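User: I'm putting together notes for a lab meeting next week and I want to include a structural view of one of the chains we've been expressing. I don't have a solved structure, so I'd like a prediction I can at least talk through. The sequence is below, exactly as it appears in our construct file.
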Amino acid sequence: MFRAGKQIARRLDVSAYFGYTRRQFGEPYPVSFAADGTLETDHRRDESWQFGFGLERFLSPRARFSRTAIGSIKPRPSPEYAFDQARFSIGIAVDLATRDRGPIAMAKEPAPSLGPRAGSSGITFRLRDPAAASVHLVGDFNAWDKTRTRWSPSARGCGRW
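Assistant: Thanks for the context. Below is the predicted structure for the 161-residue chain, given as structure tokens.
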């Protein structure tokens, strides 16, 4: 199967694909009765070209919503085994495995920006969330008042605070 795709908008992918399938099943199936009363059998062969397109919207780094449309052309259709020539599906997929897990990732040294810095009298925070409208830091140091420590984004719309 050949598949090609393109990101057309932020968190939105479109893809098109086509493929060829040929299968032969070992069990014979009945075709018809002969004039002398014997049963004629044949081996089933399934041969088809598939084509389709898909649209995926990424809801988060681990979940995506997909819509696909698939069609098929059968060069030699078999009336005994008739299948739908088109199929539409909608689904949600969630990746259960997260990135950077396992013994290799866990053995990495902490990033230099997360460790202590020489000559620093405080703590440096970094946050990346493209969907955040505002970010506030609260604690005992500001009497839990979010208006005292409002962060401003480093660049508009990038999600870095």
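A couple of points you could mention at the meeting. The first strand starts at residue 2 and ends at 9. The chain has two domains: 2-94, 125-161.

User: Perfect, that's what I needed.
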